[in-house]
Write a structure and sequence with these properties.
The protein is an alpha+beta fold. Helix content is 32%, strand content 16%. A four-stranded mixed sheet has the order 3-6-5-4. A two-stranded antiparallel ribbon has the order 1-2. Strand 1 and strand 2 form a beta hairpin.
């Protein structure tokens, strides 16, 4: 903790160690209609709901404390999936963490925790791999790098691997519904939410 907090500054209050470093990578996800998916794969993963939203384009008009684009995208995805209580319906989440605080902000915008409570929940271990609500067991962008516009696909890929039971040492037990959330990054306020099930 001291090493992270005493690291070189990036833009106060963030330090460089609280920021995902750039990485190269490519991700391909094949989407197909139900009959095609069943013909192509023995264990397809189903998209239950998707939402996308954009906040104000003007920097001075944004609420910087809340990720309103995520909140709006989540409402769309939850409505499509028929989810009324996300924390009860969803087993795990892969969310944006370009910067350390974004994971907490995303969890609150998604409705998993009330405003101001995600940090305390994380500190209490409620988002660890073996907890009741695992978050970013992949390591997230902070763990394996910032893939720029492919970050959302990286979050979705981890959800697919977990739901298929092929996530290796990261594999969670008894998961049926997962959520992937992304943010395009500075200076945008656009993001997406996808809910998937097996």
């Amino acid at each position: 903790m001291d090493e992270i907090l005493s690291g070189p500054p990036l833009a106060w209050p963030l330090g460089t160690r609280e920021t995902a470093e750039h990485a190269d990578g490519a991700i391909v996800i094949v989407l197909a209609a139900e009959d095609e998916a069943l013909a192509l794969c023995d264990n397809p993963i189903w998209i239950l709901g998707v939402g996308w939203s954009n906040d104000s384009p003007g920097l001075e008009n944004r609420d910087w404390a809340c990720a309103n684009y995520t909140k709006n995208a989540a409402r769309m995805a939850f409505r499509q999936a028929g989810i009324h209580s996300p924390i009860e319906a969803i087993n795990f989440a892969e969310v944006d963490d370009h910067y350390a605080y974004k994971e907490l902000q995303s969890l609150e915008a998604l409705g998993f925790f009330k405003f101001g409570e995600a940090g305390l929940a994380t500190a209490d271990g409620l988002t660890l791999k073996d907890s009741a609500f695992p978050v970013n067991v992949s390591g997230g962008s902070l763990g394996f790098g910032n893939l720029l516009d492919a970050n959302g696909l990286a979050r979705a890929l981890e959800v697919v691997l977990q739901l298929r039971g092929t996530a290796g040492s990261r594999q969670l037990e008894d998961v049926n519904v997962g959520l992937a959330q992304s943010w395009r990054g500075v200076p945008t306020a656009s993001g997406a939410v996808a809910i998937m099930g097996n």
